[in-house]
From TrEMBL:
This is Aquaporin 9b. CDD domains: MIP (cd00333). It is found in: Membrane. NCBIfam families: MIP.
């Protein structure tokens, strides 16, 4: 009965359009990323460090990305990042028609994830801020959702920061999913991709907190703009908001091109590799014939020379 009910539900509600299915996967994957990632920041900030620190934030985003890839990976590839989608588009691994759909789903998922974090910690927000939501100052909370530059950081250096960080992310992702490279064991790819975030977080987080994802930054920033923080979320940090959007897009393409030029282009062709193996075997056969006087035959040659009539099969 249960199986029949499940079959009926699937026949009635299951989506047939592949792009819609992939869009839903990107939405949910990005939602999970923000829920765990920004949730870890909220817990640290709102508790004033009592139940969190920088390391727990790194772990939150690492596991957020890992779970996001597990959630969406089998359906859409779990880009959960417009920079990754653009890199795949440039490499010819994503169709052009899917690109805007993926990006829209990612932004909406990030917006919804930020709303979920705000709802989860609403009372803690009110207690921490006394109901006054501000972008800068000692009780600022906007940085829970989006990145803002450190005092030392210039706009140019911030842009370079995002290009390098996102380039490293995309380059490492391509290495992990490259079947002709060492890659990662099947089913372990999400965990290893999550570890890239940990590596970036502990090495490139000083300047602006490693957003490296336009959806992860702009989606929650838009939420804060409408949820009470106001337009200051865009003007703060010398109009910083566009840096974590444009920088990662450039960085993703740079990382993809670097991996293509330095690694992927130089993989041996499958047919060529097979021909090389056959050539080696042929040389070995010739060596045996010359040195030992033996004739080396292939399986096909042996099949032709074998008299199957000699087998008495009744």
């Amino acid at each position: 009965m249960e199986r029949k009910t499940r079959r009926n539900l699937r026949e009635r509600f299951a989506l047939k359009n592949s792009i819609v299915k992939e869009a839903l996967a990107e939405f949910l994957g990005t939602f999970v990323l923000i829920l765990f990632g920004c949730g870890s920041v909220a817990q640290t900030v709102l508790s004033r460090g009592a139940v969190g620190e920088m390391l727990t934030i790194h772990i939150g985003f690492t596991l957020g990305v890992t779970m996001a890839v597990y959630v969406a990976g089998g359906v859409s590839g779990a880009h959960v990042n417009p920079a990754v989608s653009l890199a795949m588009l440039v490499l010819g691994k994503l169709k052009l028609v899917k690109f805007p759909v993926y990006v829209l789903a990612q932004f909406l998922g990030a917006f919804a994830g930020a709303a979920a974090v705000y709802g989860l910690y609403y009372d803690a927000f009110m207690d921490y801020t006394n109901g006054i939501l501000i972008v800068t100052g000692p009780n600022a909370t906007a940085h829970i959702f989006a990145s803002y530059p450190g005092r030392h950081l210039s706009i140019l250096n911030g842009f370079i920061d995002q290009v390098i960080g996102t380039g490293a992310l995309v380059l490492c992702i391509l290495a992990i999913v490259d079947g002709k490279n060492n890659g990662a064991p099947k089913g372990m790819e999400p965990l290893v991709i999550g570890l890239i975030i940990m590596a970036i977080g502990v090495s490139m987080g000083l300047n602006c907190g490693y957003p490296i994802n336009p959806a992860r930054d702009l989606g929650p920033r838009l939420f804060t703009a409408v949820a009470g923080w106001g337009r200051d979320v865009f003007s703060a940090g010398r109009n910083w908001w566009w840096i974590p959007v444009s920088g990662p897009l450039v960085g993703g393409v740079v990382g993809a091109v670097l991996y293509l030029l330095f690694i992927e282009l130089h993989h041996a062709e499958p047919q060529k590799h097979l021909e090389e193996e056959n050539s080696v075997k042929e040389k070995k056969c010739r060596k045996i014939t010359v040195d030992g006087g033996l004739k080396c035959k292939t399986f096909e040659e042996l099949s032709r020379s074998f008299d199957f009539r000699s087998l008495n099969m009744k």
